[in-house]
Amino acid sequence: AIALSPRSALAYFNRGTLYFRLSDIPRMAQDFSVAFQLDPNNGEMLKNMSFLWLLADAPHPAIQVAQRCLE
After folding, report:
1. Cβ(31)–Cβ(12) under 8 Å?
2. How many CB atoms lie within 10 A of CB 4?
3. Is the Cβ–Cβ distance between 12 and 3 less than 8 Å?
4. Is the overall model pTM greater than 0.70, yes or no?
5. Rounded-to-integer distance, Cα 32 and Cα 52, Å
6. For 2-36, how does the pLDDT look when each residue is reduced to its tens digit (9 = 90+)?
7. CA end-to-end span of the chain, whole Å?
8. How far is the C-alpha of 50 from the C-alpha of 4, rounded, in Å?
9. What is d(CA 66, CA 48) in angstroms, rounded to the nearest whole number?
């Protein structure tokens, strides 16, 4: 999906979610960062991103993303 639509925040978020499921947190972080840069105002994506950061035992990024949801 990213090769076909490299400006799709959802594609990067979905791949980041896959990396989470594979326990590849560095790659998850990289894709989440790109997704956030492409669509910083997508509340649903940010909410899910924050939740996955919590599950990855990374509270600091989870809080940062959750705060962005509240803006």
Report:
1. yes
2. 7
3. no
4. yes
5. 10
6. 999 999 999 999 999 999 999 999 999 999 999 99
7. 29
8. 26
9. 9
Provide the pLDDT for residue 24: 96
Tokens matching residue 13? 């978020």
- Three-state SS annotation for the chain: CCCCCCCCHHHHHHHHHHHHHCCCHHHHHHHHHHHHHHCCCCHHHHHHHHHHHHHCCCHHHHHHHHHHHHC
Which residue, chain included where needed, has tokens 């910083």? 40
Task: Quickly tell me which residue has 């803006």 as its tokens.
Answer: 71
Q: How far is Cα 6 from Cα 25, in angstroms, rounded to an integer?
A: 21
- The whole-angstrom distance between residue 67's C-alpha and the CA centroid of its chain comes to 14
Q: How crowded is residue 64: how many other Cβ atoms within 10 Å of its Cβ?
A: 15
Q: What is the largest CA-CA distance in the chain?
A: 33
